[in-house]
Structure formats: structure tokens, C-alpha cells
Amino acid sequence: MMNFADRLQAAIRRTQNPTVLGLDPQLEYLPASMREAYRETGTPGQATGLALAAFNMRLIDALADIIPAVKLQAAFYEQIGLPGLEALRQTIAYARQKGLLVIVDAKRNDIGSTASAYARAYLDEAILIDNSRQAAFEADALTLNGYLGLDGIEPFLAPCRARGKGVFILVRTSNPSAGDLQDLILADGRQVCEAMADLVAAWGGDLIGDSGYSSVGAVVGATWPQQAVKLRKRMPHALILVPGYGAQGATADDAVQAFGPDGGGGLVNASRSLMLAYKKHQMDPDLFDLAARREALDMRQALQDALARKRQ
């Protein structure tokens, strides 16, 4: 099984685009025509799940040839209950069918058998009553909260080693209050986020692929570009997932500060800026997928230009 980091780097090279489409849909994001089309389909919950899945699939169809990956925030599906979970499952399957890598953004954090169960749900397979195995929501990578230490991470590393999966561990998040904890100074002079970066680098040491990057990656927000530079130095082999671009205010130049010296190792998330691109481009809401493609092409160019400036 090919190393996850190598698969991601190959996909980024193929598309020339270090962008991940964030599929975090809310019902109000869907055009009125789409909401109306599914209104009478089963229960209201089922109708909502089907509409969200259809919305996602149109975005995937529009972008599959120009982006390497999608990222699904699990909470937006869990809130709807079983129909939402089915929409999550369908979207994962559809994206992988289209050749995209799939990251589930669930920020799981637990230890022992509970962590192992989370790992089986998203990165492996569960054993059923007839001794068959089933993948519930099989993604290529999963986001994790590492603040329980190695006990909470090790169960997720097993499918990275055995099945070519990946993880992205929270190091420095993009929200305004992140510094309340993550910037605190420890007795040895490091910030908390720096200590976490050092752990991520150590945890991923045996999962470095031919690309020079590890399947144990980090999440570092684009809204903190100066810290991103420092954290990248502490994690030279980590893939870094970069939220905060676009709707949260970070620019392409901010986002690429987390990339490696070779211009690789980074993946920039865009959710609302792609899903709602029709607003920016003043297009008909029913053309949301075409607007997303236009915005994704603009974003690709912006990131390519920013990487070129960074190398100068």
C-alpha cells in the first residue's frame, strides 16, 4: 500500500494544485431549486441528507480534475442524524470513485479501545457478527486532537502503517481564541503548539515516504503565518493541512508559509469560498458548481504565484 503522503504529493503534482475542497454544507448553502427538488423525498431528514449529498456530488463533478482532495467536516453530517451520516458515506464513496483523496475532519481524541474504534470507523474496517469486515466511513485521512498524548494517537497510526492511511493532528488552529492555550509558554521555553509540533514530528518519524513527507501531518492555520514558519521548521517532514484561507481572511501568501522549502508538503483548505463562490462572482445560485470551478482555478493560480514568490 502506497504511503499516504506520497499519494497526496502525487495528486498535488498531477493537478498542480495544493487545494482541498472543504465539503461542510449547510442547508442554506443549497440553491432554493435544489432544496425544493428534494422537499418531498422521504422524511424531512432523509430529504435533507439526499440534498446535501447531491450538492456535494455536483461540486465534486465540477472540481475532480483540478483538485487533489476533499475534506468533509463530520459535524455538518452528524447534526442531521442517520440521513446525514448516509450523506457522509455516499460523498466519501463518490469522491474516491472520482479519484480524489478524502480527508474526514472529525478531530477525534480518545484512548485505548475507544480510539481504536474511531480508527476502524474512518481508516480501517470493523468486524461484523458474521466475521466479515466493513468500512463504515472509510477515508484516506482523519484529523485528530493530540492533546491526550501518544495513547490517543497510536491506535490511528496502525492503519497508517498497514493500509496507507494518514492523519492530521491539531498543532496551531485558525480560530481567534486558539492562543489562550496553544501559545502558553512551558517551563522549557516552548509554546504549547511548539511542543505539539515536536510530538507530531516524532510520531511520524517512521512513516516518511519517498516524497520526504510523513503520513502523520499537522493542522496549522493560515491566519498565523509567522507561527507557521516556525512550526514548519520543527516539522520538516510533516504534511500540513492549512485552514483559514478565504472566508476566514487568510491570503495565499499567508497559506504557503506552512509549505516546505521544496514547495510541497502543504494542503490549503477552502470551504465557503468554494461552495458559495457564486456570490463572489455574482452568478446564479443554480450555477454554484460552475462558480466553484472558476474560484478553484483562481485559487490554484493564487497559490502557485504565492509559492513562486516564497521561493524567490
Question: Would you kindly provide a written description of the structure presented here, covering whatever features stand out?
Answer:
- The radius of gyration is 19 Å and the shape is globular.
- The model has no long low-confidence stretch (mean pLDDT 95).
- The longest helix is centred in the last third of the chain and has 24 residues, at 288-311.
- Helix 10 (225-234) links the parallel strand 8 (214-220) and strand 9 (238-242).
- It has 14 helices and 10 strands.
- It has 312 residues and is an alpha/beta fold.
- It has a single domain, classed as Aldolase class I (TIM Barrel, Alpha-Beta Barrel), CATH 3.20.20.70.
- It starts with a helix and ends with a helix.
- The strands form 2 sheets. Strands 1-2-3-6-7-8-9-10 form an 8-stranded parallel barrel, surrounded by 8 helices.
- The protein has helices at residues 4-15, 32-37, 44-63, 75-78, 82-97, 112-123, 154-163, 179-182, 192-203, 225-234, 252-255, 272-275, 277-280, 288-311; strands at 19-23, 69-73, 101-108, 126-127, 133-134, 141-144, 166-172, 214-220, 238-242, 266-270.
- Helix content is 46%, strand content 16%.
